[in-house]
Every structure is written in C-alpha cells, then in structure tokens.
Amino acid sequence: MTKPIGSAATTQQPAYSARDTLARLLVRWEWLLVVLIIAVAVLNTRLSPFFLRTNNLLRTTSDFMEIGIMMLPMVFIIVTGNIDLSIASTLGLSASFMGWLHIMGVNIWLAATAALLVGALAGLLNGVLIARLRLPALVVTLGTFSFYRGLAYALLGDQAARGYPPAFTSLGQGTLGRTRIPVALLIFVLLALAFGLVLNRMTFGRYLYVIGNNEEASRFSGVPTVRIKIAMYVLSGLMAALAGLILAARFGSTRPDIGTGLELTVITVTVLGGISIFGGSGTMIGAILALLLIGILRFGMGLVNIQGQVQDIVIGSLLILSILLPRLAGQLSAIRSWRGATLGKIGLALLVTVLFGWFFFWSRTLIPAK
Amino acid sequence: MFEKGLRSFLILVVLAVLSACGGTPATTTSSTATQGAATSSSSTMAATTETSAATMVAATDTSTTTMTAATETSAATMAAATDTSTAATAAATDTSAATMTAATDTTTATMAAATDTSTATMAATGAAATAAGSGAAGGAKTYILVPKALGNPYFDTANKGAQQAAKELGVTVTYQGPATADATQQIQLINSLIAQNVSGLAISADDSDALVPAGKQAMDAKIPVVTWDSAIAPGGRMVHINQAVAADIAAIQIKMASDLAGGAGKIAILSATSTAPNQNEWIGLMKEELKKPDYAKLQLVDTVYGDDQDEKSYTEAQGLMKKYPDLKVIIAPTTVGIASSARAVQDAKLVGKVFVTGLGTPNQMRDYVKSGAAPQFALWNPSDLGYLAIQTLDAVASGKIKGQPGDTFTAGKLGSYTIDKDGVVLLGKPTVFNKDNIDQFNF
C-alpha cells in the first residue's frame, strides 16, 4: 500500500516517528490476528474432533455471512471516522418490505429488487442527514435505528412472511452446484474482493482515509467529502438490504424483528479488525481476518458447549484487548531502546495468546457437569 | 502490505483446506463406523504447549466422566482425539492420562480399538497425525435441551424435569441455549450442535418459521428434532410437545372458581386485551363450561380487560369489587392480571371474601397463595414438560417410535402418550398450584 509519509520518515524526522511506529504497528495488527486465528484453530481442533471438517466449517460460515456483508461498508464508514448504527434496522426494514410484497403476491425477485432499493434509500437518508446537513453520524443513525425498525413492524405487524420459493431460499440455504460451498459465502467473497480493491486501489478508497485523517483539510484540498460520505452510506444501506435478503432466505421467512442486534456484532468485528474507531486507518484484510477469528471462535466455543453468555464475555474481552493493545504497544515502542526490536510486540502477542488460551480452558470448566 | 497480507491469508486458507481434505478420508458420507473421525494437525513449534493443554483436557474430562457415569459422549470423543494424537507425537506424560481415562470410561473399549490411520503427509510446516475414534457408536446418547434463552426460571425448571428423565433413561441431557431469545443466535447454536453430531434435539423455538430450515438440516443429518413449549412449524420438527389445550385450561379455571365460591355465587373474568386470541378462546370455552349443571349456581356477571398492564388490571379489579359487592371470585386467565387482582383484593382487605384464581406462575403468586387472596391457580408444570420432551426424544432417537401420527409410547412416570394427527403430543391437564405444593416450584 502506498503510504509515502511512513516510508520517508524512517530515521531523521522525529515529528513523524510516532505516526511511523503506529503505521508499522497497524501492519502488525493483521499478523496478530493471524496468530490468534491459528491459535484458536489449533485449540478448537484439540478440543473438538468435529471442528476440522470441511462440512462443518462450510456450514458454519452461513452464520456469519450477513455480518460479513454488512461489515464491508462498515469498514469504509469507520475509516472516515463515522459510524452506522442503523444497519440491522435497515436489514429488518428491507427484509420486511420484501416479505410484505411477497404476501401481496408480488414476484419474489421483483420484491427482492425493491427491497434492495429500499435499503439504498434508507442509506441515502442517513447519508444526506450526515453529510449534507452535517449532523453527527452517531445521533442520526441512532435515530434511524429506531425509525427503520419501527417501519418494519408497521409493515408486517406480528405476522410473518413465509413460503418463499426454493429458488430464492437457496440464496441463504443453498450450495453451489454439487459442491458444498454455500452461495452466501461466494457472494461474500466476491463482494469482499470488490470492496477491498476499492479501498486499496481506487481514488474513492484513498479519499476515505483522507477524510478519516482530517475532514476539514480534505474538504479544502478538493476532496468531494459530501458526495463520498453519501455514497458510502448508500452502499451501507444497500449491503444491509442484501444481508437482509440472505438472512430471510436462510430463515425461509421474515418477521419484523429479523436481525435485531446484528449492528453491534458488525461494529465489533470491524473494530477488532484494526479499523481505528477514530478514523484514518485500518485495512480490509484486517476486518476479514477478524470476521474469520470471530467465526471460528464462536463455532469452536459452540462445539464444546460453552454457554452463550460466556461466549459473549470472550468476544467482549477480545474487543477490549484489541483497542487496548495497540495503545499499550504504541507506548512501549515509543521508548527509544525498544525501537526496531519487535521483541516486545512478539512478547505481547504471546502474552495475549497465552492469556486467551488460559481463558479458553478456564471457561471450559464453567460448563456445568450435569 | 495488502499483497503481503493477501498472500499469507491465501497460504493459510490453502493449509486449512489441505488439512481438512487430507484429514477426513471419506468419513463424512459413510455411516456410523467412523463417525467420530478426528483430525488434528500439530506443528512442532506448538508441540510443548499443546501437550500440556491435552493433559489439562484429559484431566478435566476424566472428572466429568466419573461424575456422569461414563455417559458424556462428546467428552469421550474429545478425550479420544487429544489422547491418540498426542500419543502419535510421542508425549510420554499423556499416556498416564489416557490410562486414567480408560479406567473410568466404559466407551474406552471402542476408543482403544480406534485405528490410528496416520497418513501423515502434510507440507513442510509440520507433522500431522490423524486419529479416527468412534464416539457416538456406543449406547451413551447425548440429547440437548434447547430453551428459548438461558437464565429464565421457567426453562430452568423444564431442565430439572429433563435431567430426571435423563437419569431414568441412562442418557446425558445438556442444557444449552442462546444468551438471549433470538432466532439468529438459536440457529447458530443448532448449527454447532449439528456439527457435534448430537443424538437428538429438544427445542423451544424462538421463531417457529425461521427455525424450519435449521430443524430440517438437523433431521437431514439424522438428528431427531422434537419441540416443546414453543413449536417449530411442521416440516422443521418431528413431534411437538404441547403443554396444554384450550378446553382443559378453561375447564380447570371454572372448576377452581367453583371450589373457591363454594359452588354458588357471582364470578367475573379479568382478561388481558379484548383482542388477545388465547384469552378470548379460553373465555369462550369457559362460558361453555359454565353451562354444565355442576356450575348452574355460578353466575358470570362481567368480563373486564386489564390489557396485561399491572396498573390497569389493578384498577379494573377494584372496579369489579365496587360494582359487585357480593362478588365471590375473579378469574384472571393471564399472568399479569392474576397478580394485580390478588394485590387489589389484598389492598381492599377483602381476603377471604373475594378470591382470585386463573393462570399464573408460582414465584409471582407465592405470597398471595399464602395470604389467601389467591388460594389456588393453574398452569402446566414446566418440569413435566421438560421430562416429557426428553422421553419423547428418546423414544424417537432409539427407534422405539418413528414420530408418526398414531405412534404410542411410554414416557416414564407420566405414563402412555399418543402422537396426534398433527404430530403433537399433549402433556396433559394443567397443574393446580396451592399452598401445599407451591414451594416445590421455582419459576
């Protein structure tokens, strides 16, 4: 990736050194995730004979694809230092709208297209309020979080839309041809590639980082911040709608409460992926690795029957560690004698792994022996 | 940076796929013989830490197996996997642990016989040991009782009954549910249970429609699925255990009211909302029931609606007592209304003059039962519900019945049950709670 500032400021300019170490640290964050993924995978394999089975691994991906799809635009949004709390509600609204149309007898594909449109519109409303009217993203999306979910309830009430045709439900339940690869996984992989390329290779992506680093400055240097932010929220709404379709297909039905609470998981994964909540840094690879980590972590804990609440504790502490560690490591590497030596960071990574492993075994003892 | 990350990611994926493909030699489709095939790739780097980890697992599992009298299949397979693979990597300490497990575990007979098909042909990163152990082949079955959510006394009580059934049947029942009552989480849980190849699922569904595909997947994987308390729509389960039918609920409430009124006098109904389908069905049936000659002297004077709000129900109950000074009984077929009415009676100092009955839960009604404001009320017994769910599941899983309409089976202490034409088993008459039995219940 091109980061001229970082590479130029290796030795002489002390003004840049802090940023330099930070940048290098972020490079390392992905590696820490890789280490964690390997550690969790090894642990899971040790703890359960059912973990390393292609069938099981592929099936469990379906539990995380909606999260993954919504995570992609969330990376964009958080990179610019904004947030979108309304995604799960947008998901619910779009899926409910599709269900409502389905009940009215509209063709399912037509209904699905309309649902995508509704999602994009929901995103557009967010974008206009935030970018054009300069309202704070947190408050706007907190508002639409309730608003969109309320609309979903208004559409379907306490009834459920059901009886989707098999061609549609295969979007969430089906596999590719004769292979065992879920359709949803393929959709996610393709989208992830596209979003990754946009973030890393295109001007649009670079502008996102620029906005995240200093929005005022970027506006004055001619970056079309308003347009970019609106586009980013429209994308977010669109992806939430797509996730809604896949979730509805997976459920084979829609209720207005569909996907409640997913926004927090999505934000958790994104932040765990090393996307700074203050904006300006983070990579798509990091977010995808974090998704993989959460996925195998949840699945592994499920396999050894760790209670749901304990799983939440694990994920929660992991998130806290993920924002605590870079700060801690940043301070440590600011000490001159440590500079250049990766020993400290490796040590920290090891410490985390060990702590994590210890926690994993400890949490296993929490399973009540009945 | 991007390329580097991508490259390493790809390598990781390739490695994972390699180990997955190389590790499971056609075990997935073939039947019970090699069900619990375990694959474990261990790199030399992590060998030492893993060994200690394995010993830890072995140790904890031994304790659990002794406690559950060698019935915990998943633990057994787990131990099998770790022990054999570490034996392959020549860890001397683990052998003792393995023998320890062997001493206490009855399924070790099959475990020891597990063929070590070590086809260690992995890439340069490390050696891979593959061990196949048959886990679920033995007699010990593990059923999972899945509530709507954990931490709810109602479901915890159901689990008590389920554990009793487990003891009687000689199986293990694990109580495992989502952290919150949410269909997405419950499906995720069910997926991981399917992956573990458990012997059967008894589910209280968070969403009757959304769980249909998950239930189907389980049944496709030859895991029987029954539902209790809250059904999965037909197609996603084999049998549903229904806690009560409307006619019985109506009949028991009229009977309790008649008992409390001494067979004659004015009674009134305090319901939830005027549109609540359950309550309206019950009220209709109660009116039918009152036409019976036994209840000829009971006079239903009014039906009011407290909208399932505590404050409104309380006011409505007060209104009833003012309007009908000689009112004998208030029937509240709703858990909100019954508690509010009982409180209204107590506050009006009319205990012993006006009685409250209906549907409620013991924890909420305990004080009123003891004070005499609501001497008896009814609800189904969740403990029996959990008991029957496991009994039904076992009957299906062990092949005693197919789960078809018309099938008859014996459910331990509860006696004989028949599956009706909708694939539903009815628990039975509601349980009446009074001061003699209320302290046995906590939900």
Q: Termini of chain A, distance in Å? A: 54 Å
For the record, give the distance between the C-alpha atoms at the N and C termini of chain B, rounded to a whole number.
57 Å
What helical percentage do the residues of chain A reach?
Answer: over 70%
What is the number of helices of chain A? 16
Low-confidence stretches of chain B: 12-138
Radius of gyration of chain B: 28 Å
Secondary-structure-derived class of chain B:
alpha/beta
Largest sheet of chain A: 2 strands, antiparallel
Write down the oligomeric state: heterodimer
3D shape of chain A: globular
Count of helical stretches of chain B: 14
Secondary-structure topology with pairs:
The complex is a heterodimer of chains A (370) and B (443).
Chain A: H1 4-8, H2 14-47, H3 54-61, H4 65-79, H5 87-103, H6 108-132, H7 137-156, E1 161-162, H8 166-173, H9 183-201, H10 203-213, H11 215-220, H12 225-251, E2 253-254, H13 262-272, H14 284-303, H15 308-334, H16 343-364
Antiparallel strand pairs in A: 1-2
Chain B: H1 2-23, E1 37-41, H2 47-67, H3 73-88, H4 92-104, H5 108-112, E2 128-132, E3 142-146, H6 153-169, E4 172-175, H7 183-195, E5 200-203, H8 212-220, E6 225-228, E7 239-242, H9 246-261, E8 265-271, H10 277-290, E9 298-305, H11 310-323, E10 327-332, H12 335-347, E11 355-358, H13 362-371, E12 377-379, H14 382-397, E13 408-410, E14 416-418, E15 424-426, E16 431-433
Could you characterize the architecture of this molecule?
The complex is a heterodimer of chains A (370) and B (443). By secondary structure, chain A is mainly α. Chain A has helices spanning 4-8, 14-47, 54-61, 65-79, 87-103, 108-132, 137-156, 166-173, 183-201, 203-213, 215-220, 225-251, 262-272, 284-303, 308-334, 343-364; strands spanning 161-162, 253-254. Chain A contains 16 helices and 2 strands. Chain A has a two-stranded antiparallel ribbon. Chain A is globular and about 65 Å long. Mean pLDDT of chain A is 87; it is low at 1-15. With 443 residues, chain B is of the alpha/beta class. Chain B has 3 domains: 36-115 and 129-140, no CATH class; 142-242 and 382-403, Rossmann fold (3-Layer(aba) Sandwich); 246-379, Response regulator (Rossmann fold), CATH 3.40.50. Chain B has helices spanning 2-23, 47-67, 73-88, 92-104, 108-112, 153-169, 183-195, 212-220, 246-261, 277-290, 310-323, 335-347, 362-371, 382-397; strands spanning 37-41, 128-132, 142-146, 172-175, 200-203, 225-228, 239-242, 265-271, 298-305, 327-332, 355-358, 377-379, 408-410, 416-418, 424-426, 431-433. Chain B starts with a helix and ends in a 10-residue tail after the last strand. In chain B, 51% of the residues are buried. At the A-B interface, helix 2, helix 3, helix 8, helix 12 and helix 14 of A face helix 1, strand 1, helix 2, helix 3 and strand 4 of B.
